[in-house]
Prior knowledge:
Layout: E1 11-15, H1 39-51, E2 56-59, H2 70-73, H3 85-92, E3 100-106, H4 112-126, E4 130-135, H5 154-172, E5 200-201, E6 206-207, E7 222-225, H6 230-239, E8 242-243, H7 250-266, E9 275-276, E10 279-284, H8 288-299, H9 304-314, H10 331-336, H11 339-349, H12 355-364, E11 370-373, H13 375-387, E12 393-396, H14 403-418, H15 431-435
Parallel strand pairs: 1-2, 1-12, 2-3, 3-4, 4-7, 7-8, 8-9, 10-11, 10-12
Antiparallel strand pairs: 5-6
Helix pairs in contact: 4-5, 5-6, 6-7, 9-12, 13-14
Amino acid sequence: MSTPPRTDKLKLGAFFHPTGNHVAAWLHPQTQIDAGTNFAHYVEMAGIAERGKFDLMFLADAVATRDGNLEALSRWPQYMNFLDPLTLLAGLTAVTTHLGLVATATTSYNEPYQIARRLASFDHMTGGRVGWNVVTSANTSEAYNFGRDEHYAHGERYDRAEEFVEVVKGLWDSYDDGAFVRDRETGRYFKPEALHFLRHQGEHFKVRGPLHIERSPQGHPVIAQASASAVGTELAGRIAEIVFTPLHSLAQGQQIYQQLKDLAVKNGRTPDDIKIMPGLNAIVGRTEAEAQEKHAALQALIHPDVGRELLQNALRGMDLSPYRDDEPFPDEVVAGLIAQDRRRYEHMLAGKPTVREIYQKFAGARGQRTLIGSPTQVADDIEYWFANRAVDGFLIQPADAPGGLDDFVTLVVPELQRRGLFRTEYEGRTLRENLGLRRPPSRYA
Length: 445
Ligand SMILES: Cc1cc2nc3c(=O)[nH]c(=O)nc-3n(C[C@H](O)[C@H](O)[C@H](O)COP(=O)(O)O)c2cc1C
């Protein structure tokens, strides 16, 4: 059975890794070397994304540094020195007008009242352009900064996340829309019947409410998630409006796409209530050769300590120290892989690569899908995934910043627009309007 052609438009987000998504990007002379703490850099990046009519920009977060071998840690900036996402994004409110601003906040080491309040404030400040990436924290060391000796177990993290989001949404409905009459004649500031106490008491949280801020322009800021596990995917089907989970092949993409849309429907939502926007490491040049050259230049900068550390982590701590960089990737390591990892990394192991070749392949984009090509090639691939309903859009992860984002906006966006796949003007003012997501009614309406 053939599916009808799509009439909706592609969605685009930009992932702002400080110096770029490539692990060695900071070593490249064209990246903003102090990007982690350089506000002007983010102003520039947001300006590029908005010029490209992107739906949103996205900031990841962790509430701890990475832990591990200090030699390797000191050679890769990610999570070692960066601005708090909500604080940074609030600063960008004043220099953007349409771009959605999506910040990560963990449900494992926060309290719902504070997150509800900060995001609602931020939604007011932006006129409705805010999104929240709900994570349960991938990094175990976050526990050590919040009074715990170990991280919550995976299932418990997701239990807590579900209750956390439920409380936050309840708090966002504390006041009905239009509660604040501010009538100087009658002396009534707000309608008393429009104020609701949440009185939540659950397994993880006890929150009376109400939240002391009026319902925000979007009603609820947009909720994003990037879970990959079964329990995380189930939760996404219930709560997520954007899903950033990585997809490696078209067939796998189509399967997860359908699964998430079906889960949304099973939970009383519509397929359009959930937008699938996986990360995409796009490296674009004016020609394919130029793009390949850019990629090769970045790959050559990967330090062996960093490459080995990342690969060892991905291989669940397997020790690669007995093996030299230039020897073939050892059979005994392949034999020791659990089946799930063997399937995941099979495509990298073809053709007897060396240890160096494997860690370079893996480390550059941490095993995620990388797309290298001319503007036409990159647009072809994006169109193919979109038309075949494996995605609603992509979260573009520029390898280097700001140049990689500028290349995408200058070279690929016009091609997508020429094909009628992507907007030439923003449809609305709020993130929901641009993504085609409805504004949720209050639970008390
Ligand atoms: C694009 C993307 C962005 C993510 N951002 C964060 C983040 O900022 N902080 C975090 O702790 N985890 C982040 N994650 C990890 C996911 O939230 C999730 O924990 C991971 O995909 C494993 O899935 P699971 O939690 O269902 O096991 C991200 C994942 C992806 C794919």
